[in-house]
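Field reference: "sequence" (input) and "structure" (output). Example, Cyclic nucleotide-binding protein:
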Amino acid sequence: MELQEILNAIYRIPEASADRLASCSVRIDRPKGCRILEAGKVETDLFFIARGIARAYIPKGDREITFWIGQEGTAIVSLRSYVCNGAGYESVELMEDSSLYRLRRNDLDTLYREDIHIANWGRKFAESEFLRTEERLIPLLFTTASERYELLLTQHPDLLQRMPLECLATYLGVTPVSLSRIRAKRK
């Protein structure tokens, strides 16, 4: 995906403002397995996935709990770092060779002060991230594991080919064995 397409999906702004925002971005390529964000560090850069897939996870004992998966068009950001300038609790790892657009918080802060259209884009971006979090949290609280798996198949069927099953299992809030059972019952 091109940056303009990603930005417009969040909130369409005038071309001059979009060009200013794009001029502060850098396209970077990173290999599968690269960590974009590290738990315990202040990570203030914002990334958008142009090509590839990533997961956010937290280590829990001898395993990792994947709680977020992002693919093309999705933002990668440690909200705790970005908003509070505090150390983030998550690590974000690329699951495929990927291309990302990187925006630095300091550049964005300057643009927010100088351009009302970019400030409004930033507000819409924050709103969309809150909504995405809510849409992820509510099904975890009020649906069964089988229902969450069906929702995943409906909304993101490609994840089954692009993500390891262990990651998908923790993302769905189940063990890998439980996910195997759910998949077997579905056949």
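The mean pLDDT is 94.
Strands lie at 25-30, 35-37, 46-51, 53-60, 63-71, 75-76, 91-94, 98-103.
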